[in-house]
Amino acid sequence: VHGDSRMKSNKKKEKKQEEKKIQKEAAGESKKEVGNPSTPSKGSNTDLKIRTVTTLLMLLAFALVISFGHFYCSLLVLVIDACIFKEILNLKRNREAEKQMNLPLFRVINWHFFGVALFFLYSKLFSEKLMLLGNTNSAINFIYHYHNVIAFALYIIGFIMFVYSLRKGQYKYQFKIFGWTHLILLLILGASVTFVGNIYNGLIWFIFPALLIIANDTFAYIFGIMFGKTPLIDLSPKKTWEGFIGGFISTMIFALFFSAVLTKIDFLICPAEELTIVPFSYGHCSLQPSFAPVLYELPYIFKFIGVTSITLTKFQIHSCIFVMFASFIAPFGGFFASGFKRAFQIKDFGETIPGHGGVTDRFDCQFLMGVFVYVWSTQVIFPTSLSVASILDIILSRPIEEQLQIYQSLKGVFQGKPQQSLS
Question: Distance between CA 372 and CA 378 in Å, rounded?
């Protein structure tokens, strides 16, 4: 009995010591984060130089990819997805243990599910464009009509591979990675597919929101360094209310002027009607109502300063809403990522980008922004009516008798003859 009581007391002491260590480590991390930015060390100066160089290189690469066109911007999103998937998946993986476990097809299965998710989401997104291509290509026509069946069959293949790979004594680890993989795919690919939707609605819906996040982050950092005194949130001790508000005001000014510039570039505002891999193939389109300048009368109070009206595009007005989201909501994606990293006791998600950490570290705010712009543009800005391709697909799916009836009815409409009910 005495021995048991001693063992219990020793365990309690060990637990207290571990708790003290954790508290010390946490305190050390917070001190490092709250450190005075006005007196940087030599190491921090070197990191700043590396960070600046890689930022400029990324911006140049981004501009180059945009010049190539819609398909290559989508390819960039796909590469980013793959990097983020790998970085977050590695948080739960134990590579040394996996070598000893001798698990067959373990990595292949994870990436198989990644490919299946991509196929399912992208085939849904490009269904109308696949229908048009399917008129001249039998393979694409088959994919268009049976993409749900194909995606399900591919998923079942991965599921069977996973069950076959299960090994005695490793069940818990394997099912943990299985669930972790599906969670990543749901959150990351489910959000990033909206980026591709924005790209094909017009490059401006992809470029402008991304620049708003970058501008807000930059302005908030500058105002935080110059005037920051009041901490904003415990998860990011370097963030201040002064930087938060200054970033919003500066980003609003930036958006109003820069949006006016982008709307004058034809290939940025035109949607991509077809899927093509030919670079520098810019389409032309008629000026959409969102980008047409409109004269707005100002309230009577502005007459005292000699201004009675202002010319703006609807896109500029919508850009103000985008700025509010980029300034007040999107940063919480970064705060979420900070809490996530603290939970796993890591500084960065990876080391893919020198001076920046992982790809996930740079795109934590972009995901929320991309989803919001897609939802807002498709539900509020663009009309919700069916496209010509969708209507044609519905007609062709009906029996030949009904198709002929529709043809005769449309023929009568164009000839100005009264028509009978199709029912």
Answer: 10
Kindly report the pTM of this predicted structure: 0.80
pLDDT in tens, 310-360: 899 999 999 999 999 999 999 999 999 989 998 998 988 988 888 788 999
Q: What is the DSSP letter of 304?
A: G
DSSP state of 313: E
Structure tokens at 159: 């599921």
- Tell me the β-bridge partners of 296: 310
Residue 319 to residue 314: CA distance in whole angstroms: 8
Cβ-Cβ contacts under 8 Å for 387 (sequence gap 6 or more): 128
Strands (E), 199-308: 231-233, 236-240, 293-297
Distance CA 212, CA 323 (A): 7
How far apart (Å, rounded) are the C-alpha atoms in residues 285 and 351? 42
Q: Which of 310, 323, 319 has the alpha carbon at shortest distance from 290?
A: 319
Which residues share a beta bridge with 311? Answer: 295
Average pLDDT, the chain: 84
Closest-CA residue to 195 (of 180, 185, 177, 208)? 208
The pair of three-digit structure tokens given for residue 272, joined into one six-digit string? 């991509």
Query: Tens digit of pLDDT for each residue in 263-317?
Result: 999 889 998 888 888 888 777 788 888 899 999 888 888 878 888 888 999 999 9
Q: Which long-range contacts (CB under 8 A, 24 or more apart) does 403-411 make?
A: none
User: Nearest Cα to 117, choosing from 7, 193, 201?
Assistant: 193
Q: Are 322 and 198 in contact (CB under 8 A)?
A: no
Give the tens place of pLDDT for each residue, 10-59. Answer: 555 555 555 555 444 444 444 444 333 334 455 556 777 888 888 889 88
Q: Whole-angstrom Cα distance, residue 205 to residue 192?
A: 14
Beta strands in 190-322 (DSSP E): 231-233, 236-240, 293-297, 309-313
Which among 300, 285, 314, 420 has a CA at the least distance from the CA of 376?
314
Q: Going by C-beta distance under 8 Å and a sequence separation of 6 or more, which residues neighbour residue 54?
A: 353, 354, 355, 356
Rg (CA), the chain: 27
Residues ≥6 apart with Cβ < 8 Å to 255 = 208, 212, 215, 316, 319, 320, 322, 323
Summarize the confidence of residues 257-265 as an average pLDDT. 92
The C-alpha atoms of residue 123 and residue 142 are separated, in whole angstroms, by 12
The residue whose two tokens read 């299960």 is 166
